[in-house]
Design a protein that fits this description.
Elements lengths: L1 E6 L2 H13 L5 E6 L15 E5 L4 H14 L4 E6 L4 H7 L5 E4 L4 H18 L2 H10 L7 H10 L6 H9 L2 H11 L13 H8 L1 H13 L6 H18 L5 H9 L9 H4 L4 H12 L3 H9 L12 H13 L5 H6 L6 H9 L11
Parallel strand pairs: 1-2, 1-3, 3-4, 4-5
Length: 356
């Protein structure tokens, strides 16, 4: 394993290399200096993994990540940034597999790199690929959701442009109006125009409602699937507050997306794994793909309680399945179960999508 660390401090990189060596890993660590006037290409160093800090300049870090993505598509890409920078963290997931909080910690980096490699290996399984080939036409990527996500990253995008996307689908527009007037969101007068409904719901709730409407658009039992997905989304976002809430809510929404695929074509492949493969084809961020793949078996994850753990708990409580108490004990989160059960019992009856 060749790990390239793009950082402004060489002494920190040396410390990381020493800590990795003490754990018995045969990893080579190279330092790519960042900071004022720094040049050099991470891709030229032929990395198996790249760790980049955003604090030395996010534009420079993003350039390195994209360069590695193009020239070494299987390399693991990790960003470290200050905790609480939610907007930039969401943007970073478009360029990296993992967004980790500073400071640079050896075990956290090791867990992140290994986790991405394990997921890549899982989704490269020959049996899974044969099962997907038998399906033929796969569900198409949610175009409205992806267009809305891109639009919301534009600081100059106004409510009018967002409303125009929603208005393209009358059924979706009706759901937006209905949810904005539900008990969970309604404050005062009833809303009858789409633009005001968009403002009332907020960007995060709107994005997940669009995603649910596109993914669970038609077919038997789609209404109940959509309702469970929205409830799981809401609960996952409540379980994991802070910068991970929005990602957890989206992963919770898509936890059972594999059930949209015909089971007779999957054979022995679990729907969760097939669903994760589908999301990978759609280009969704790795933490979401990983949570969908492992939420029923969270013990396969290393590291602390994060997206996968939140989706595991939320999905189990919404669907009435067993929560893995041994896993929660290992990650130090078991004591929070009474609080999470109370949240599940109080979740909005209409499947409110807000994770705020």
């Amino acid at each position: 394993m060749h790990l390239v660390v793009a950082w402004e401090r060489g002494d920190e990189v040396e410390r990381l290399q020493a800590e990795i060596a003490t754990r018995g890993l045969d990893w080579r660590v190279s330092w790519l200096p960042l900071g004022d006037g720094a040049t050099g290409s991470a891709a030229d160093l032929d990395p198996d993994a790249l760790v980049c800090t955003a604090d030395s300049g996010w534009s420079r870090c993003r350039l390195l990540l994209d360069e590695v993505r193009v020239r070494h598509p299987h390399a693991v890409r990790v960003v470290l940034m200050e905790a609480g920078d939610n907007a930039r963290a969401v943007d970073a997931l478009e360029h990296a597999h993992r967004v980790l909080p500073e400071p640079l910690d050896a075990q956290t980096v090791i867990d992140a790199v290994k986790g991405v490699l394990d997921l890549q290996h899982l989704l490269d399984d020959a049996q899974l690929k044969r099962a997907i080939e038998r399906i033929g036409a796969l569900p198409s990527a949610p175009k409205q959701y992806l267009a809305l996500t891109r639009l919301l990253r534009d600081p100059d995008a106004g409510t009018h442009a967002i409303t125009a996307i929603i208005a393209q689908d009358p059924a979706l527009a009706a759901r937006v109006l209905r949810l904005s007037n539900s008990a969970y969101y309604a404050i005062g007068r009833e809303i009858g125009d789409l633009r005001t409904a968009v403002v009332r719901l907020g960007q995060d709730a709107l994005r997940r409602l669009v995603l649910a409407s596109e993914v669970f658009a038609s077919g038997p039992d789609m209404d109940s699937m959509r309702e469970r997905a929205l409830r799981t989304s809401w609960l996952a976002g409540q379980i994991l507050p802070g910068s991970g809430a929005g990602v957890a809510a989206t992963a919770g929404l898509l936890a059972d997306v594999g059930r949209l695929l015909p089971p007779d074509s999957l054979g022995d492949v679990p729907p969760s794994i097939a669903g994760a493969y589908l999301l990978g084809l759609w280009g969704l961020p790795t933490p979401i793909v990983e949570a969908v793949a492992y939420h029923q078996h969270p013990t396969r994850m290393s590291g602390a309680f994060w997206i996968t753990g939140a989706v595991h708990v939320a999905s189990a409580l919404v669907n009435g399945t067993e929560v893995d108490h041994d896993y929660l004990q290992r990650v130090g989160a078991l004591h929070l179960m009474p609080q999470w059960r109370a949240l599940a019992a109080a979740s909005p009856a209409d499947g409110g999508t807000s994770a705020d």
